[in-house]
Amino acid sequence: MQTLNQTNITVLVLATVLVAMACVKADWVRAWREGINPSAPEVPDGAFVLARVVFLSIAAMGVYTAVQGFGVADDLSWSEGELTSAVRGATDDLDGFPFQVDPLGAPLAFDDYATLIVDKVTENGGGDAPATGVNAEPSDADTDADAHLTVTAEGVDKAFCVHVVRTRSKKDDSTPPGAAGADGTLTLAGYRLTATTREGAC
């Protein structure tokens, strides 16, 4: 993203140089040429007019391209306000989030907390926020029951710490039907998440 913005700035600088060149007086150019090569033929006024038109046209195209480029860069990066709102929305969605686990204890609704949080933040980003660029970094001491994840996004210096706690919820247990419609014998344990967030890395 930074490279894209640097490219746009470079294009604007070049456009400014072209505009400056278009403003140079014809008498200055003639005097300069005569100083370098006194025998050189005189440049007609029409050549200066054509050069100005070319310089200004290229400069205008450069400005247009740079403006469009800044728009693309904005669409590909998050703003601080977008991330703040998205993390708060994701936290609201995760607080009370129900799910079951398989017999090995792995959640059936998501792969891990990091993936779940990234998905929820992206969902709450709004229409102007990018669909990518969010990262949730787990803490080293995280467990299945208690985890702290640092949420960041492309283009934003601010970070958020999302704290999730898993608690047993028997009312969310599920017993899938057995073979041929018979009553199932396997109960999938239900859980719920409690989620909070604060500014700053975990």
Ordered list of secondary-structure elements with their pairings:
Elements: H1 2-22, H2 26-36, H3 45-76, H4 80-94, E1 98-100, H5 113-123, E2 134-138, E3 146-153, E4 160-168, E5 190-199
Antiparallel strand pairs: 1-5, 2-3, 3-4, 4-5
Helix pairs in contact: 1-3, 4-5
What string, H for helix and E for strand, traces the elements in order?
HHHHEHEEEE
Shape: rod-shaped
Determine the strand fraction and express it as a percent band.
Answer: 15-25%
Q: Which blocks of ≥5 consecutive residues have pLDDT under 50? A: none
Oligomer: single chain
Distance between the termini: 25 Å
What would your notes on this structure say?
It is a single chain. The protein has 202 residues and is α+β, with helices and mostly antiparallel strands. The protein has two domains: 2-76; 80-199, no CATH class. The protein is 45% helix and 17% strand. The protein is built from five helices and five strands. The chain has helices at residues 2-22, 26-36, 45-76, 80-94, 113-123; strands at 98-100, 134-138, 146-153, 160-168, 190-199. It has a five-stranded antiparallel β-sheet. Helix 1 (2-22) packs antiparallel against helix 3 (45-76) and helix 4 (80-94) crosses helix 5. It is rod-shaped, with a radius of gyration of 30 Å. The model has no long low-confidence stretch (mean pLDDT 84).
